[in-house]
Amino acid sequence: MKEFNIKDVKIEKIAFFDTKKDGSPLVTKAGKPFKKVLVDIDPYSIEDLEFTGKLSMLDFDGVADNWKVGDTITGKIINDGEYWNFQVPKVDLRTRVAELEKENAELKKKLAEKDDVITDEDLPF
After folding, report:
1. 54: how many CB neighbours lie within 10 A of its CB?
2. Exposed/middle/buried for 55, CB within 10 Å: 0-12, 13-18, 19+?
3. Res 115 pLDDT > 70
4. How far, in Å, CA of 18 to CA of 106, rounded?
5. Per residue in 29-85, pLDDT tens?
6. Measured at the alpha carbon of residue 84, what is the angle toward residues 58 and 76, in degrees to the nearest 5?
7. CB-based burial label for 67 (10 Å; 0-12, 13-18, 19+)
8. Measured in whole angstroms, how far is the alpha carbon of residue 8 from the centre of its chain?
9. Residues 6 or more apart from 57 whose CB is under 8 A from it?
10. CB–CB of 37/57 below 8 Å?
11. Are 65 and 75 in contact (CB under 8 A)?
12. What angle do CA 61, 69, 33 make, to 5 degrees?
């Protein structure tokens, strides 16, 4: 198995699939739907002569839902001998929750400091 880290590599082509070839939905054993994402990037993004620039990723959490051509991706390319798969960096959930709590507290503070009161005269209707 070969692994390569990439950072800020531009998406050249992208396709999303939420069904199998027979038309049935892609679902986990637990019944949760997911998508298969096919991404094309510059084949010279990594140093491997066999790499064609074509990656696949199973998206269980909607990470790639807003990806489009021209966006950049960061993560890990994994070659298992047959397929070139892409993995986004794992996020430490405790750290992420702490960041969001801090941001939420800052926004609450800013909101509390605002003394703007909307009256009927302020409304356009």
Report:
1. 13
2. buried
3. no
4. 38
5. 999 999 999 999 999 999 999 999 999 999 998 999 999 999 999 999 999 888 999
6. 75
7. middle
8. 13
9. 36, 37, 39, 64, 85, 86, 87, 88
10. yes
11. no
12. 20
State the Cα torsion 14-29-2-46 to the nearest 10°.
10
117: pLDDT strictly greater than 80: no
**Global pTM value:** 0.70
- CB hemisphere CA count around 75 (13 angstroms): 21
Question: What CA–CA distance (Å, rounded) separates 52 from 40?
Answer: 9
Return the structure tokens found at 99: 């960041």
Distance between CA atoms of residues 52 and 5, nearest Å:
16
